[in-house]
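Appendix B. Worked example

We walk through a single record from start to finish. Start with the input: the chain for VOC family protein, Flavobacterium ginsenosidimutans, length 216.
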Amino acid sequence: MRIDQIQIKTNDIQKTKAFYQNLFGLFILENDQKSITFQAGSSILKFIEDPEFNSIYHFAFNIPENQLEEAIQWCDNKVDLIVLDDKSVVTNFENWNAHSIYFFDHNGNLLEFIARHDLNNEQVGEFNSASILSISEIGIVTESPLKLGNQLIEEHGLHFFSQNTNTEKFAAIGDHEGLLILVQPNRNWYPTQIPSESNPVKISLENNENLIEIHL
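Next comes the structure step. The output line below is what the pipeline stores for this chain.
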């Protein structure tokens, strides 16, 4: 399953532009007074401005599975990586065979670089903005993750992520290429103490050559 595009809200287009274009070097596809759209590897990241919006999203980018340390170095003068309880900045997801680092964008969204070792996406050379391969995950907040998950499975032929223990508090739909992360409201976004809130999101997916549009 591939995430082709996500559309989310921002309360400040200029802060969004400063982070994703000026700091991270992503290419702007479209920009007007009310929205801005970036190319993020094979995915598209679109923000719609809403001055009244007062919340955050969580989403992740796939990076080459062999370049986590290079990504950490690249981030060094750009963002403050979130330090975990063990004083490391790297999370080891053993069941997912992946390692992640976390940080915030200028609007307070919780971002993640994830190196998934079951993907054949090794790269050589310097890590830079072109090393951001795709949008890997988008967090979705719902009262019943399993109910929504089963609904998406029935309507769109999707499936629960087999390497995740899917529960009523946390479930994942998809695979290593792309995941919908379903969580209950007020569950803290790992690895922070920020409670999750339900926010509007539009998602375009590609699954088994089928194009899927999800509006939540």
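Two observations about the output. The CA atoms of residues 150 and 214 lie 14 Å apart. The chain has a mean pLDDT of 97.
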